Amino acid sequence: MLTCALALAQEETGTTVWFALKLSSITFGIFDAFATEEDRGAHLVGRIAAALMEIAPKLLAEAPRSCPSR
Length: 70
Description:
By secondary structure, this protein is an alpha+beta fold. The chain has helices at 2-11, 37-44, 47-59; strands spanning 15-22, 28-34. Strands 1-2 form a two-stranded antiparallel sheet.
């Protein structure tokens, strides 16, 4: 999923950096940054988020969550 997500992140003009991290054999993470708050919002409702939410029940210990907006 993360390999496919990289291509999607590269299509997002407002996503300035996107990294997938393998922390252990069963723990992964994503770090991404955005030019504006609007770009962040677009990412959170975009294709990567939709794909993650579709498979989240199978792969994640708990549902993904983001920090609240300031």
